[in-house]
Specification:
single chain, alpha+beta, Ubiquitin-like (UB roll), five-stranded mixed sheet, 2 helices, 5 strands, about 30% strand
């Protein structure tokens, strides 16, 4: 099990109801983590519409995670 920190912004923050959380998870990749939280919170945004950052750097969905990582899922935002 890996202990990771997740941070949420914009629509994800609204849908999940919090800006961050710490999870213990058996996921291997960033994609696995998003699949887990998507199922946990019944999220409507698919990965194709998101960017992902691992430890403050943009990453690919197939990047493997490690214990103590911080992951940020970045949804599209509207400007005005």
């Amino acid at each position: 099990m890996k202990k990771i920190t997740l941070k949420y912004f914009a629509k994800l923050k609204d849908d999940i109801g919090k800006s961050s959380e710490t999870l213990e998870i058996e996921a291997k990749t960033l994609s696995d983590v998003y699949d887990f939280i998507s199922n946990k919170y019944s999220l409507s945004l698919s990965k194709e519409f998101l960017k992902v950052a691992l430890n403050d750097e943009f990453s690919d969905w197939d990047t493997e995670i490690e214990d103590s990582d911080t992951i940020v899922f970045i949804p599209p935002v509207a400007g005005g």
